[in-house]
Amino acid sequence: MTTIKTTCSRCGDIHLTPADVALELRPGGRQGDYWFTCPHCTYTQRRPANARVVSVLLATGVQFEVINPDPITEREIETFVAALEAEPDPLRLLAG
User: Fold this and answer.
1) Range of the domain at 34
2) Rounded to an integer, what is the distance from CA 53 to the centroid of its chain?
């Protein structure tokens, strides 16, 4: 079984399985944060994940979620809908 070695700020070096780690990616998928709960002291910890860490975590099978820090606003949706309605051939917008 694959194990991931990391450090608990209270317990020191620990070993986790991919199921013990959660990965949140920023749009683009190259950076994000990972978090885990220490199996010894049960302290939950969140750490930044650079491109190398993301690559290693994904390779070991850690599940991920893409987090968008700037969600689409209602106004942006309304503007988009209006543009689609004004365009006689909406598929043309995809070509550009």
Assistant:
1) 4-69
2) 12
